[in-house]
Amino acid sequence: MKKLLLPLLAILCIFYLSCKKGNDGPGEIYGKWKLTETLMDPGDGSGKYQKVKGKDQYLILEKSGKIEGDVLAEFSTFKILDSVRIEIKAKSNNQALTYYYKVSAKSLTLNPPCIEGCGLRFERN
Description:
Blueprint: H1 2-18, E1 31-40, E2 50-51, E3 58-61, E4 67-69, E5 75-80, E6 85-90, E7 96-103, E8 107-111, E9 118-124
């Protein structure tokens, strides 16, 4: 029995130590996000994300559903529809637009409703 216990313990230790630790899994959308990249496709699929230059721009998504910051300044509120869609309402006419999103602990990608591909990438601040 002792001969079997040692290899079993060694295998369990290897599995435990090989488990990935960190915050790269699913994250929470709420918080302050810094805009890092934008995508504007001309309609032929050749668009690529480009690094943002100049003054830092932020998006703040509050748990109350309020939007602040200078990235989506024309919008006032949001509502999470499901694990991939978020509804965002404009300040001026309260019109709702559905964005697709992907969030992890450190990053957020928003894809507005565009005919051509477009998107915004953020890092948690």
